Amino acid sequence: MATRVIPPRILRNLRYNTATKPLASSHPSSLSPTLSPPCLSDPKPPSQTVLRPALDPSALDFNDVQSLFSYVPTSNLLRSTAVLHATAVEPMVDLGMWIMRSKLFEVEGVKDVILAAIRNTFYGHFCAGEDAVTAGKSIRALNDAGLRGMLVYGVEDAHDNEGCDRNLKCFLHTVDVSRSLPPSSVSFVIVKITAICPMSLLERLSDLLRWQQKDPSFNLPWKQDSFPLFSDSTPLYHTRKRPEALTPQEESDLELAMQRLNELSQKCVQANVPLLVDAEHTSVQPAIDYFTYNAAINHNKGESPIVFGTMQTYLKDAKERLLLATKAADKMGIPMGFKLVRGAYMSSERKLASSLGYASPIHNTIQDTHKCFNDCSSFLLEKVANGPGGLVLATHNIESGKLAAAKAHEIGIGKVNHKLEFAQLLGMSEALSYGLSNAGFQVSKYMPFGPVETVMPYLLRRAEENRGMLAASGFDRLLMRKELGRRLKAALGV
């Protein structure tokens, strides 16, 4: 994971060390893309010495709202407060979801009005722009405020090879855009395997992989090197009968999908930008993990990984699978990177398990989920502090952020902080993001971009699957109101 040049606001009154190390020594000049947009044509030269503040968990301060939001314009604070208030009201979320899914989109004129309303509210808050160039501008603004960006082209499911090829071109262009921006302002390029491999094939692969877990003698001639995909506690109820072998056409489609991920991974190697593979629902996650681990084996070298996987800690088997995967990676000498998240498919996972007569794969209580996230976080922090690998802690939970910051300080992770990144969704947990950044940690915002209609599935999922998180954004709203009040008093001279 490459380091970043620290903005001046973070450098003041702090001690520094220069022991950080980038993913690679430089961006290969011979591979620089030729992008025409003027806003992307003048990247800042890299600093000769990258300075990082010494970490101190006591610096994770949420009381100084002026410092937290010093780089957030008042107009953005007002919009953020309004949007977060609206998304915390369930009837409002229900109405918005109904409108986005309704036939009103088929009515000429009405559709344009709806899209304009979404673009200036919900979309404008949670998304970085309608194209890679606009997203680049958002990244620059974020970088000036001390944060980095995770760029993700906001397309999700693909259903045929033509759609997968189209999506791949967009992901490859995203890598080009990331290289044209200030060095290290983009921490990761994000890819969804569901966008570069047909969903039906991912379902077939997951069934076959699950059946082989049930019956090790079950032969999968197409299977390449991977880490363990399952643990003893992993539920296998999705596959209720022995699946048929892949047809010649499916094997050909699989080879094409593997080639797409390989091409994207190689592009990231050349661009010196890590690639992070997002997690999905459990019906296709085994296939996604298979793709991820195979790409990691092929492309992760040295100390710092290029390909990162995602572990959803709201799943009961998450810690066990994480231990098995990291052990296998160590044995093969492969540096592995992981993003830890809680998870975003709770309602659908529970409904599916219940419909099949099985217990939910999700932890029974939120406390169990918190414990799993924190345990996995502690394990991986110690691991990357003492060896190769990388870690992204994607959390909106204040307590998890504080625990991880304290743990990192305790074990001296500050000396290898290129291996640790905190992350939050764009438009969410701004106080945690800026608080961690002020304390000296690298912090990224997950930044989906694309036309409003293309990103609509992401927005719907953001609303539907994260109602609890949106409702729990009260802490952010409270701090934003305090800062808005402070600015109003300052403007009035009170």
Automatic annotation (TrEMBL):
Chain residue ranges for the region called Disordered: 21-48
Compositionally biased region (Low complexity): 22-42
Domain annotation Proline dehydrogenase: ranges: 185-469
GO molecular function, one term: FAD binding
One cellular component (GO) term of this entry: mitochondrion
Gene Ontology annotations of biological process type: L-proline catabolic process to L-glutamate
PANTHER family: PROLINE DEHYDROGENASE, PROLINE OXIDASE
Protein name as it appears in the record: Proline dehydrogenase
Organism: Arachis duranensis (Wild peanut)
Lineage of the species this protein comes from: Eukaryota, Viridiplantae, Streptophyta, Embryophyta, Tracheophyta
